[in-house]
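We both want to read discrete structure tokens more fluently, so let's practise on a single case. Would you write everything just below, so we can both look at the same thing?
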Amino acid sequence: MDRSRSRAAPVVDSSCFCRVDRSSVAAAARRLPVSKACVQPSLRASIHPLKPPRPAGDRSSRGGQQCPLLPGLPDDLAIACLIRVPRADHCKLRLVCRKWRRLLAGNYFYSLRRRLGLAEPWVYAVKRDARDGRVSWDVLDPSRGAWRALPPVPREYAAADGFGCAVLGGCHLYLLGGADPRRPGGAMRRMVFYSARSNRWHRAPDMLRRRQCFGACVMGNRLYVAGGESGGGGGGLRSAEVFDPAKNRWSFVAEMAAAMVPIVGAVHGGRWYVKGLGAQQQVLCQAYSPESDAWSVVLDGMVTGWRSPSACLDGRLYAADCKDGCRLRAYDEAAGAWTTCVDSKQHRGSSQAAEAAAIVVLHGRLCVVRNDMSVSGVEVAAGTGNQRWETLAGKAHAKSFVTGLLSNLAGRGRAKNSILHCQVLEA
């Protein structure tokens, strides 16, 4: 009996099913563009959570198989668990192993948190010490209600003045311009940004003009700057620029109607309103529209008496109505005037420490940040008379108005720090 006939047929055919005639392949290649022949995913290996490159001799793999993020679970389920860990504990997750550190160092982890509504907003305050003039910054976790000091800011901004601050993408904090500490009387074009995801500072393209004491805002995820001073006795500036993070470059936009040094600014109704001082120390207010790329002088009731920190919530503009920010007012477009909408009736006085330095939007509430690092939040949408103030950080109305006034007269109301900028970052 022939042994070749008695041998059983193989269960799986080892022949290649992709084998075709070479002439047909060449004909297909002539019909298809080379760039369209193979579509590759636009994901960098450095941020891919599931298939990171494994160096030779890596001890994390056994038998040629990679160790999972969590033993006994597929990596997709493990990521679904890890993205629910509170943001305050992410620094501990990075210390567990190399694979966890790699996961949290990329954009995939935090993009997924934001897509699922799990991103947590924190408040970042850039402040100046009243004693030595050094610039530092702290972060506030609203769930814990306590400020925490952060590592030093970049060296060029440790003693700078008149610099701008803005947030792009919800997680990148930009510091730009300002007085140059290395050149007395000069200004900088430098720009750096901090990533709340990687917890690191990075360099960014410099501005086209040197400027300090200028205005900055974000519209359509683009950073706009305008006005200010060039330093060195150059006078005020009319020029304006825009930074597009998608193109990673600056470009000029239309010049302002008049040179000015902005004091306050706000984005409302798709326009950027800037109020400040002109070349002759006169009060000016201008508005920029990115659609028409044009500036216009504003003379309506919105700019009358508008000199305090402000913020826009649900399409409505709010501003502090008193020095300590315990009374807020809103701009009524129909009437063309400001009206008081929230009053806590528990004022802290007019001392520098209790002065409202910024107003930010946090979890749908307006939060007033003061120089003494106390933060109070209120839901303005609750209706007149139904708003309830909540203390997020600091003591709740520790001093009455009379006590704060006496402390200010005695010289004890001077703030230890003055908040320069206050922004909200998500991660």
